[in-house]
């Protein structure tokens, strides 16, 4: 029997070592320790479900905001490009009469000396901005890019054709800034059959 001093029991010492010092084997946890986590499991699971629902809601909100911002950026970039193209097209359109004068001077042999170099520099700069002339004699007539100033019939063509170019057209990319002004010839109609041919 343990000795008692002044009516007090000796302290009880519990061995909580996980490895048995005598056998060296791992001890199984006591019933109290194994049951404690099991009692907390339902609370943790309910809390985790609530957190998962909140996380899913916040994630959906974030994805929606990100999609709206991406669409906004694309719209702003598209508008910026459209405004720039409109401004460049307006400036190029104003310079077309100058190019017409340069073309007439070149046709008459008056484009010489320093003026020729200035004209070449101007044409080069406008080309870099996307301006390109079109409209050559012999091109098939296209009413979307040609303006017919004269009309005739010719046995030398098999389809409506630009047989003369009075003023070249200009486009910037796919946008037509000014249609080419041309004379158009169509194939001659076949001669009507005579009465003698019908009789035969």
TrEMBL record:
<dbReference type="InterPro" id="IPR013805">
    <property type="entry name" value="GrpE_CC"/>
</dbReference>
<comment type="subunit">
    <text>Homodimer.</text>
</comment>
<dbReference type="InterPro" id="IPR000740">
    <property type="entry name" value="GrpE"/>
</dbReference>
<keyword id="KW-0963">Cytoplasm</keyword>
<dbReference type="InterPro" id="IPR009012">
    <property type="entry name" value="GrpE_head"/>
</dbReference>
<comment type="function">
    <text>Participates actively in the response to hyperosmotic and heat shock by preventing the aggregation of stress-denatured proteins, in association with DnaK and GrpE. It is the nucleotide exchange factor for DnaK and may function as a thermosensor. Unfolded proteins bind initially to DnaJ; upon interaction with the DnaJ-bound protein, DnaK hydrolyzes its bound ATP, resulting in the formation of a stable complex. GrpE releases ADP from DnaK; ATP binding to DnaK triggers the release of the substrate protein, thus completing the reaction cycle.</text>
</comment>
<feature type="coiled-coil region">
    <location>
        <begin position="55"/>
        <end position="82"/>
    </location>
</feature>
<feature type="compositionally biased region" description="Basic and acidic residues">
    <location>
        <begin position="1"/>
        <end position="30"/>
    </location>
</feature>
<keyword id="KW-0175">Coiled coil</keyword>
<feature type="region of interest" description="Disordered">
    <location>
        <begin position="1"/>
        <end position="45"/>
    </location>
</feature>
<keyword id="KW-0143">Chaperone</keyword>
<comment type="similarity">
    <text>Belongs to the GrpE family.</text>
</comment>
<keyword id="KW-0346">Stress response</keyword>
<protein>
    <recommendedName>
        <fullName>Protein GrpE</fullName>
    </recommendedName>
</protein>
<dbReference type="Pfam" id="PF01025">
    <property type="entry name" value="GrpE"/>
</dbReference>
């Amino acid at each position: 029997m343990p000795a008692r001093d002044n009516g007090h029991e000796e302290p009880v010492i519990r061995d909580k070592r996980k490895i048995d010092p005598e056998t060296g084997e791992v001890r199984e946890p006591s019933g109290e320790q194994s049951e404690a986590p099991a009692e907390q499991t339902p609370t943790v699971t309910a809390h985790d479900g609530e957190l998962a629902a909140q996380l899913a809601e916040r994630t959906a909100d974030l994805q929606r905001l990100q999609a709206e911002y991406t669409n906004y950026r694309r719209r702003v970039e598209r508008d910026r490009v459209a405004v720039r193209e409109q401004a460049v097209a307006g400036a190029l359109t104003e310079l077309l009469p100058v190019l017409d004068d340069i073309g007439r001077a070149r046709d008459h042999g008056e484009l010489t000396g320093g003026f020729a170099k200035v004209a070449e520099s101007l044409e080069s700069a406008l080309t870099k901005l996307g301006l390109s002339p079109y409209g050559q004699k012999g091109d098939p007539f296209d009413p979307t890019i040609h303006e017919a100033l004269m009309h005739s019939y010719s046995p030398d063509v098999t389809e409506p054709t630009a047989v003369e170019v009075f003023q070249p057209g200009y486009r910037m990319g796919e946008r037509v800034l000014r249609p080419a002004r041309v004379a158009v010839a169509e194939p001659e109609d076949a001669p009507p059959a005579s009465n003698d041919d019908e009789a035969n």
